[in-house]
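REQUEST FORM: STRUCTURE PREDICTION
Request ID: SP-0412
Submitted by: Lab K.M.
Chain count: 1
Length (residues): 350
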Amino acid sequence: MAAFHEEQGIGYSFEWKIENFSYIWHKTGEKIVSPAFVIDRFENTKWTLNLYPRGDKNENYIGFYLKRKDVRGSKDIEIQCELQFLTEDGMVLRGYRDRKAIFGKDMARGYEEFIKRQTVFFDEKETYLANDTLTALCIIKSNHKRVKLIKKFFARTIIKVNRTSFYWNIGRFRNLEGDRKISHDIRSLKNKDLLTCNFYMSGEQFSPKSANVSISVHDKKIKFLILKVFLVDISGEKVKCGQQFYFNGFSKHVTLLLPFTKKFIIENRNKYLKDGDLRLQCECAYSTGFAFEATETIDFGIISSENSNKAFENVYNNLEQPNFFDTKFLNEVFITIVFLISIIGYLCQL
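STATUS: Completed
RESULT:
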């Protein structure tokens, strides 16, 4: 087993940003894998981060693992590793450390219940998902109390999201009965059928009729979809009526029950009906896969003895970078290049 007991410890960090994370489509047991990175001082082994957005086994948690990707090198490699979620400016929100992690070939280690989904997606969403981007960090180092940072890896994964918004007039609302549906088709720029929204009333014969919007998805490339519906009064004011989600593989049809009845609208017709028509606004956003993935490496080479004696507790706060390397500038350049490439890729598909 390789333990890498050098005179002075060495360390690596891998920061991974996932943009549009709210539109991740993976079900429980399905993972999203980071771009791979190679650790040269650890026998040139290849590693990835594995993230289970809806849990490895428990759907209420996010699973987070480090994986030794290939089968090269020693049978077992012993390292120290940390897995963290960060704020937008690099502060640690949640993290765990394994001081003696032994990785066999093609082996993953981590946390099946790293953090509750409720925390990330709802309770503290503005903190964990600033600009809808999740930032994950992995620190790998040899078994020393003090180490020097050899390399920093920056990876970015962008989930492709398309958005559309439209006003929807439900004509002759008072006469809408039975199974009659009012449909609205959403098409791509290439005039391809994507999905159909249907408005209809439901309920027993002598009970209040409830309003519904159903979604029928035609494009198999749509992996995840969020539909938001608003009721618009005659003055233009909007009332949110709820939202519905769609996952590829569960069903081709989903239905959103709106929080008003036909009786309520008719009784308040002076507010909601203009020339007998009801007006809705719909906002639809859907993901079709990954738009872009890339990794950037910053190699620090030999670091001065003053810097190498600093504890590698947090690569952002406690490790002074060499003054001849402007890492902030390089990171900004990398982010700009990634953004331009994603824009060019999007324009090429129009």
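NOTES: The radius of gyration is 26 Å.
Reviewed by: T.R.
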